[in-house]
Amino acid sequence: MTIIHLPKSWNVPEREVTPETVFLNRRRFFKTLIGAGVGSTLIPILGCENAEKVNSKLALTLNQASLEIVKQNPAFLTVDRPMTEQTIAGQYNNYYEFGSTKSIWQAAQALPTEDWKIEVTGLVKNPRTYDLDDLQKTFPLEERIYRFRCVEAWSMVIPWIGFPMKSLIAAVEPTDKAKFVRFTSYYDSKITSGPFWSLGRKLPWPYTEGLRLEEMANELAFFAIGNYGHKLPKQHGAPIRAVLPWKYGFKGAKSINKIEFVDTEPATFWNTIDSHEYDFEANVNPNKPHPRWSQATEKFVSTGPGLKWEKRPTLPYNGYGEYVASLYV
Ligand code: MTE
């Protein structure tokens, strides 16, 4: 595959950076409102300057318990564009188990997250089933602000809370035979209300995704259990999802309940549906068009009341080339 040499992605114009202080102040403002018992009525979320009246039902889905963050990873505190409003990110989602539109946030509330277990299995020395408590006790939580880019060409900036995938690798110790990992998402056709068929094809539920082991071990690869300072809302893939900021969003499986280390490239949901449209590798690449549309530019959701899109050039590897380009030499 073609390697694209990037300018250092973190050398970004000062005017475009969302400073940490702005983010922290926004968060404090939000917490103050919740603390004052404003959580169940129409509330402005995330910042005086862009305060927006939101539907109270949406606010309830976003108002999850706060998470104690051990550190804010200094390498991932700023990006080259403003952070997306929580209320926009929380009502413009892809989660096909709950429907094929972007408006699944209400349907996704049917996801049962109590007593969640994640089985880590396959070619590892220490197979283990974790519950969420175990995960939080074993892996210190940190916060990272990442660019997020969907294969459909829309993009956002999201502050995630979680832990690097390499910490899980260290805990379970894959054997020498393990070359790939496969993530499986929750699925129960009695509860999930999404389609069984699309474009004449039976959808290969459950949703699965995968990585090469080297990709999983990369510094950027992350498991998120929260965003915007709170536990993950269901529409974002509660209670735990994969976040891979240099790849298209479909690689980041939501609501994971099984992680399997395997020796051959695993079958995955979108790749099984159409391998030309949804590469197993699928890195953000402006020079590799999707068969049905260009990837040269993206639609970045800008801040402000309502959905507004701003056209921007796509950055190779979504701007994270300095971390990941060497994986693809
Ligand atoms: N995971 C599951 N289980 N089901 C899905 O439909 N959609 C993917 C990814 N993970 C999806 C999924 C796609 S296409 C995208 S762009 C992102 O989730 C969207 O994440 P967000 O809704 O939190 O922005």
Automatic annotation (TrEMBL):
<dbReference type="Pfam" id="PF00174">
    <property type="entry name" value="Oxidored_molyb"/>
</dbReference>
<feature type="domain" description="Oxidoreductase molybdopterin-binding">
    <location>
        <begin position="113"/>
        <end position="270"/>
    </location>
</feature>
<dbReference type="InterPro" id="IPR036374">
    <property type="entry name" value="OxRdtase_Mopterin-bd_sf"/>
</dbReference>
<dbReference type="InterPro" id="IPR000572">
    <property type="entry name" value="OxRdtase_Mopterin-bd_dom"/>
</dbReference>
<protein>
    <submittedName>
        <fullName>Protein-methionine-sulfoxide reductase catalytic subunit MsrP</fullName>
    </submittedName>
</protein>
